Amino acid sequence: MLGQDFYPITGTFREPLLVLEWIMVFLISEVAFLLYMRVKNKEMKLSNIIEKAYIIFLLSYSLMGIFYIFGDYYMETPISRLIVFNIGYILRMIMGLVFIYQIEKYQTIFRKYMFSKIFLVFTILSVVLSFTAIEFTQYASLVLFWIPIFSIFLIYTIKLLKKPSEKQEIHNLRKKIYFSILGGFLIGLGFGVTSDPSIIAFGLSLRIVGQVFQIIGIVVLAIFFTSLPSLSEQDWKNKIDKLFLMRATGICVYYKFFRDQTSKRNEQNISGAINTIKMILKEISDEEGEMVIEKEGKVLITCQGKYITGVIIADQNLNSLNFLLKRLIEKVEFLYSNIIRDWDGAMEIFLPIEKITKEIFF
After folding, report:
1. What does 266-292 look like in DSSP terms, one character per residue?
2. Alpha carbons 232 and 22: distance in angstroms, whole number
3. How crowded is residue 153: how many other Cβ atoms within 10 Å of its Cβ?
4. Are 300 and 293 spatial neighbours (Cβ–Cβ below 8 Å)?
5. Looking at the whole model, is its pTM more than 0.70?
6. Are the CB atoms for 84 and 67 separated by under 8 Å?
7. 169-214: per-residue pLDDT in tens?
């Protein structure tokens, strides 16, 4: 029961702290709502599972904030405060279990559902402690909840940072991840200085500092989450079907089929696809720059360079594919700048484009 003498919080610090803590709860809920609005109309795909997992985590953090407020400001006895906290801890553990399970549905960390199984054991242990040693649950939750959650975030962040730099550049993903780490650090620091041991050592005034740190951290993470592209953007490899590079005259200088690469593609299918592209490009010949056309259940993403027009046929219009197509055209035109203007029709000179395509798309 050490540190319980501070509670319920009264006096000069009560109103400022209450305002700050409700602001924090509101901000976290607002970020969860923004993410929900972004994914609610999407089809249920693996690329959206992790976004929904983020929503669950944010809601669990916000919900625990409400329990902290009621326990610290409105419970008259130490035991009633601990009971309120324990209800919050158990609900948070359950939501944390769902969060980790959703993460591991999207991506295996080490072994399939390893963290989910560990967290399930921790959740059961939390319930047991709530009935047998309620005075230890406040400190046990730091280990049982935060260590697995922190480990998941750390491992997942490292994996994102290890992605090839060409793909990272699509959305400045690496910078955004570092930015999110700063926000997470501020939240962790703020949470630490608002804990009972810190309050015992330095007094309630430190709790205001901790709440300010957490609010700043939440704002930083909010910027990260709302600016982070949908994870379907990172799943672009499963959306792309065909790639064509064509001269203004309609001659196809390069093509790539991303699906069924091992099967033989006859010339009739290739000619049919190229003729379809020619007809569409003829219809938009007066347009310049990038265009997206929906036709027969497919999306055609076009990008016109100085000498070459690139076309991607895909299942979904993604910024990632627009970026990569533009990058491909820039590299090809730079490589062939002195050749393509006076090209004599020899197709062999375009064979190195395959290597450029692999560098960008694989």
Report:
1. -HHHHHHHHHHHHHHHHHTTT--SEEE
2. 33
3. 15
4. yes
5. no
6. yes
7. 555 667 777 777 888 888 888 888 887 778 878 878 888 898 899 8
